[in-house]
Structures are given as structure tokens and as C-alpha cells.
Amino acid sequence: MATVRSGRPAMDANHPPDSPIIVGELPKESLSNPMTVGVQRELESSLRESEKLSLQLGAYRSAEHDATVAVGLQAMWFTCGLFVARRGYRYSDPIRSFVRPYTENVMLCKMANPFSFIGGLMATVTAYQIPSDVNFWLAARQAAADEAAKLEVITQSRERMLATLKVPRPLD
């Protein structure tokens, strides 16, 4: 194994150190408080936990984005359904109504026209789906906020630990 000028062994790419926290080329004597094994393990545990929380946060943010798109599409379909129903009601011919053979009521015949009937069906089905999509969106948003808060707490604790050791910050 080759050595650097300071007499310490150089890092071997085939045999990396046990810790992912590589302090750099500082000699151990230059640290005011040398890193103990317990502190090193705690830092490694903190890094693993923050990585896990980062992945979970990404999943929750992706779910929140998908739910936002779903709510937007449902709102668009609801609006289109109302527009088609209104348009069909205003400009329909009562003679072509589904209920024309059974009633003479013009308002009922206009509402049961094929165009306004399809619009009403679109709006009704979409209105039935919107609450569950909004609940999914709110749950994903709350879960993402919770994970972001947990990640912030772990990051702050790791920063405090590194500040007390006066160790150069590892690259995140």
C-alpha cells in the first residue's frame, strides 16, 4: 500500500474506509476533539436516517404532485360537464328528448336531451370523485410536511454534533 508524504497510508480504492464520513487530509491531532467510535456511528446512523427520510419525502412529494394533477383534471372535467349540460339545456330541441313520449314539460324535456344529459352525467360522476381526490391530496401534502420536519430535525442534530466536534462538514 502506497503512502503519502505525511507518512499516512493513502486511501485504497479497493479497500475503502469503514466510515462514509471521510474527514479529508487532516491529521487526527489537528482536531480539538477526536471523533470517537460512538460519535462516528451516531453520525453514520444520522446519515442513513436522513437518506431514508429523503427518499420517503421524494415519494410523498411525487404522490402530492400526482394528486394535484388528479384534482386539477377532475375540476376541469366537472367544469366541462357543467358547460355541456348548460349548453345542452339552453340550446336543445325538446322534441329530441328521452322523456318526450312521457311528458309535455319543456324544462324536463330540455334536461333529458342527449347533450345536456351527457353533460349532467359527466358533472355528477366527477363531483362524486372529487372529494376522494382532494382527501388524497391533503394526506400526501401532510405526509410530505411531516417528513420534511423530521428531516430538518435530523439535519440540525447532525449539524450540532459536527459543530461541537469542530469537524469539517461532510458533503451531503
TrEMBL record:
Highest rank taxon of the organism = Eukaryota
Q: What is this protein called?
A: Uncharacterized protein
